[in-house]
Amino acid sequence: MGAAVGWIRQAGAGLLTVGAALLVSSCGEKPLPAGTSTERVLFGETERIRSFDPAKAGDVASALAIARIYETLYQYAYLERPYRLEPLLAVAMPTVSEDGLTYTIPLRRGIFFSDDPCFTRTGGKGRELTAEDFVYSIKRIADVKNESSGWWAFQGRIVGLDEFRESTLGEAPSDYDRPVEGLRAPDPWTLQIRLKEPYPQLLWILAMHYAAAVPREAVEYYNGRDGRARFSHHPVGTGPFRLVQWVRNYRIEYERNPMWQETGRVERYPDRGEPGDAEAGLLQAAGRPIPFLDRIVQYVIGDSSTQWLLFLRGRLEQSGIGRDNWDAVIGPERTLTPGLRAKGVRLHATPTLMTTYIGFNMDDPVVGSNKKLRQALHCAFDGKAWSAFYNDRMIPANGPLPPGVAGARGPDEPNPYGFDLEKARRLLAEAGYPNGVDPATGRRLILTVELGAANDPTTRASAELFADFMDRIGVRIENSYNNWPTFLDKMDRRQCQMYRLGWVADYPDAENFLQLFYGPNSSPGPNHSNYTNPEFDRLYEQARTMSDSPERTALYRAMADLVIEECPWICLAYPLAFGLQHGWLLHYKPHDFPYGMSKYYDVDIEARAAWQAREW
Amino acid sequence: MIPDAPYGTLIRTRSLWGNAVRRLWRRLDLRVCLLVIALFTAAALWGEVVYWRYRLRDQTPPYNRVDMSRAYRPPSPWSRPFARAVEALGPRASRFAILRKGIANLFEHPLGTDNLGRDVAQRLIQGARIAFQVGIITSLIAIPIGVILGLIAGYFGGWVDDLIVWIYSTVASMPGLLFILAIAMVAGKGLKGVYLGIGLMTWTGLCRLIRAEVIKHRDRPYVTAARTLGAGPVRIMFRHILPNVFHLVIISFSLRFPSAIGTEVFMSFLGIGVQGEPSWGIMISNARLRLWHGMWWEMTAVTVAVFVVVLAFNLAGDGLRDALDPRLRTGDTP
Q1: pTM, whole model, 2 decimals?
Q2: At the topology level of CATH, where does A354-574 sit?
Q3: Chain B residue with the nearest C-alpha to that of A471
Q4: Residue A48: which pLDDT band, with cuts at 50, 70 and 90?
């Protein structure tokens, strides 16, 4: 993975509270004029949407919006855990050649783009999707002029694509007819991708919105000239919904894509889930055609207390739980307060694929060369107290891999350098700093932790808490607060001694976390610890080209153990995502990658009307 | 009114300053203000002592020590000090022991604890130290700039005056707070940025005042006399005119002190002020997290402290202006 770090990653990295707020921002509701309609409408809340262009959007809210309109070759099986991909626009999972380099993907027939004036040849009727659309869409990601935030996913992977990127560098318009050797459509219903080296994570990438099918006609037609909208404002896709209206920063409305009915396209609600789904009522709709919703209307509501009050009034069917209303909503056992539970509100607390950590810069003369010192500091970190500080909204981490990815440690496998003050003191003495005192100066060792987000009081308080943990073994921590760009810059220039950051998975594969320790990924790459270990690099290179198998999991585990032993990170916690739903939001199941999942949701309009009548 | 005195009799009058102090002390409200300022100064000095004591011993000071088990304790009088003493000692303990323990509990955290279980009272005193430093150091930056430029502009007039007026008009026309933030960003985080930011932006008012006053003075007989005796401009400005306009500096100092504190609070609130030490701004920023849950004590303690100190300085500054105004010198003669 190269230096280009997408918005999704940056938004996740460092922002500890990102989970709950973002994951639940997909939909909501608002009362209908009573009795006028049986239309199933979801009125809800969203973060600000930046763009509808799959190549450009990198933030979570835009990705959620895009995934309602555009579709990808593969999608996550909605109910199944661990996460599994299933075909969406493809007929089946790809055929992979012996050497793991050539992926042949058969496409579904009878998938149509929604009607739009941009299809001039068919007089505005939506045309059928072909493999060329995917070739074109991936080329768009590579086009320098598009400044795509998704280039990291394809960089250095597909034969000829990097050369195509170079050809777009000049001022001349990019030539999309220029062939890319590794990206071909032998016939309209087959897509063939040739890789430079095996890259089994490609399938996860093909499920991201960056790889969504975009019609070339629309991109060329909606160029912002002659009174036409720009393409980023006027999406044309094959998805379950289409955009009706977008008032930036205020309101957005989607409606059921009529093309599905016209062309007889039928998608069905999944009939397989994990144990417990049937009891939770998630399989009631199994086999029924989706989407259930006729319309989705969302508002941008900046103020969290406004959001909360709207939720209580039954005008939003989902809500995150802010730090401020935490105590009012969640009891000491991390369950919903009886009042809300009795009203049918449901609480979802789910682990997210995220690890927060304090990294050591291995280039630093003090911490980089002293493994015992790093281990001592790791042992001094009190994960339980840390989670308690965050209202137990996190699980103490026992390694770099969060639960849910292959190779992660189970809850019964504690980190050998978990909280143990005695051990910490012993290791510290062995590291050459008995009681934290540096014999060279006769004074306590001072270490500096760099942090982003200087003006957030929670970050500051938690930083002081961390300093106190280290103070207990005699090490003095100085917190250095930066604004976010300065912080990123310092890490890229390897100027941090220690730094605090988080990592949200781009796809549910341990490789996505382990690449953070891969030598060639050192800063300005994502390996901000500049951790280099030939043994690790060897294992990583071996594992990253392997497909999912017990052998690969063993390799992942070995790498994670190596990292735990070498301590380039102090692993802090795995944040949980908390969300509230009203009882009338049907078929809702939290997902780490909830893109495109509103097609499974449904609302019980009568229950909602009853709540609103009662609450008003 | 000065009575007719026999020729050769010395008329004993008080000096300007002696008279000012006497007039200040005569007013009860100002006496209270001076007392508050004295207390504030004492707290700041005490904070300085505590800070250096732990700094030199290389220990973590108590006001920065985290104890999560004590987080969010209300001020002792609100936390049932005597009931807790009974609980701790058991019902059969002697009344005296319970009384002693209860009183000890009463003074344990007189202003409560914050989100990390640190004592708010101790942190308030350390905050006073930062506030005091900011007030003094920014004045040391701003006042010399204002005085020197004001003297030069007022004394020389002409194009020098034009130039300086242009400079201070330009600086004054910039939105102050934004410019302070910009300077602080350039100077780097921490107090250095705060000092420079506030210091370099707040000299214009004083400069304008001094210039106007010097223009009034530069053709007075005593200045003309000094010039006739061969004194150079620097000597005239600093030895002759400056003492006559210096009361403006004192007044301006007492009035800018609280506004500097306010600015520091604001900047620390935004996260570009002091690092790693408690300041009032940081405490306010911290306290607002749980304010609506009824954790009122940290916010209350800091805002009351800021309010009282700022009010005291403002009232004292006003009083000082009155006291140093020669036109209000009435009934001073013995």
Answers
A1: 0.76
A2: Dipeptide-binding Protein; domain 3 (3.10.105)
A3: B60
A4: confident
